[in-house]
């Protein structure tokens, strides 16, 4: 299928590159990966053309700004990376759009930078790489905390999507991974960390306060669609601390938008499709951590997806979600 739109499509600046080594690979793989993730020109566009991807919404790589402890340094790099994205968009109109990188140390600073990116740079939303470390490596802030309400108010007012992207848990707070570091990142830990953060948002009462919020997560829903029925079933018996006014599954289905990034598998997709309305499912590749060609070959040929669904999930859903000016 030609004309697809992807929006978990990463790039890096030199200051955020090294943190990706833990889960991107080493040796010759790292050399190729470095070239690909820094490039916003011919090589990336060539992969897009071969894969039938018309538009990529760019985002800063993980853990990016969320692993930078100092708020001023993170803001400086946010502005640098956002300007880099804006430059790429201006050089390749119709092929790229931007998702703002945000320093989440201070919710009002994050809101101000998001507003600048949307209103001045024309960005279509933001992508944040999980919890924010602040001042000390052990200090992790999650965005369901009441102190972030002013930030979410701005997201709702701007009416743009917020993409919650994975990152690894802080090693000292991940004793269950000891001796098995392979578990901490993409094979398992990414989904665990992002699903917990997502469920915290659902259970915090956030969506009662800001009913327009739209949250995106990748990898066919970070395992949540598989467990959603049981979550709701057991919540009837153990709702301690739950602050939502409706069942958790209602919030997830109403406010979360799910991408295919990095999970090109028919059985997993079928589960997500059976759980989430196909108006809220989207094609993405997760480049360069995954190959665009692999994502597109699966998506374009899967027998689970009808042609009508393919058009919606590959293109028109994203046009509506991000208010893209495409035909």
Q: What does this entry look like structurally?
A:
The model has no long low-confidence stretch (mean pLDDT 96). The protein is α/β, with parallel strands linked by helices and 327 residues long. Strand 5 and strand 6 form a beta hairpin. The chain has an 8-stranded parallel β-sheet, with helices on both faces. A two-stranded antiparallel ribbon has the order 5-6. It is built from 14 helices and 10 strands. It starts with a strand and ends in a 5-residue tail after the last helix. It has one domain: TIM Barrel (Alpha-Beta Barrel), CATH 3.20.20.
Tally of alpha and pi helices: 14
Q: What is the name of the CATH class?
A: Alpha Beta
CATH architecture: Alpha-Beta Barrel
CATH superfamily: Metal-dependent hydrolases
Which class of secondary structure composition applies to the elements? Answer: alpha/beta
Low-pLDDT regions = none
Q: Write down the overall geometry.
A: globular
- Calculate the mean pLDDT score and round it: 96
Number of beta-strand segments: 10
The count of domains is 1
Radius of gyration: 19 Å
Percent of residues in helices: 40-55%
Question: Which percent range describes the beta-strand content?
Answer: 5-15%
């Amino acid at each position: 299928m030609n004309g697809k739109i992807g929006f978990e499509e990463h790039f890096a600046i030199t200051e955020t590159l090294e943190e990706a080594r833990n889960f991107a690979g080493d040796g010759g793989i790292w050399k190729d990966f470095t070239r690909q993730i820094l490039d916003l020109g011919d090589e990336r566009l060539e992969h897009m053309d071969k894969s039938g991807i018309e538009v990529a919404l760019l985002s800063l790589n993980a853990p990016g700004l969320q692993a930078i402890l100092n708020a001023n340094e993170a803001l400086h790099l946010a502005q640098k990376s956002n300007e880099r994205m804006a430059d790429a968009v201006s050089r390749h109109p119709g092929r790229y759009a931007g998702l703002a990188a945000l320093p989440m140390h201070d919710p009002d600073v994050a809101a101000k930078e998001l507003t600048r990116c949307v209103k001045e740079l024309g960005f279509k939303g933001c992508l944040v790489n999980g919890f924010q470390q602040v001042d000390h490596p052990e200090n992790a802030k999650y965005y369901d905390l009441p102190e972030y309400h002013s930030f979410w108010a701005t997201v709702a007012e701007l009416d743009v999507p917020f993409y919650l992207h994975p990152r690894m848990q802080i090693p000292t707070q991940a004793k269950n991974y000891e001796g098995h570091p392979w578990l901490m990142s993409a094979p398992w830990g990414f989904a665990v960390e992002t699903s917990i953060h997502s469920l915290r948002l659902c259970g915090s009462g956030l969506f009662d306060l800001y009913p327009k919020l739209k949250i995106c997560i990748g990898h066919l829903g970070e395992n949540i669609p598989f467990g959603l029925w049981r979550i709701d079933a057991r919540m009837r018996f153990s709702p301690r601390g739950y602050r939502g006014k409706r069942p958790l599954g209602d919030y997830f289905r109403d406010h979360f938008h799910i991408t295919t990034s990095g999970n090109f598998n028919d059985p997993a997709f079928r589960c997500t499709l059976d759980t989430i309305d196909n108006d809220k499912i989207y094609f993405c590749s997760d480049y360069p951590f995954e190959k665009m060609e692999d994502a597109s070959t699966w998506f374009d040929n899967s027998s689970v997806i009808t042609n009508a669904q393919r058009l919606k999930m590959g293109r028109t859903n994203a046009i509506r979600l991000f208010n893209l000016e495409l035909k």
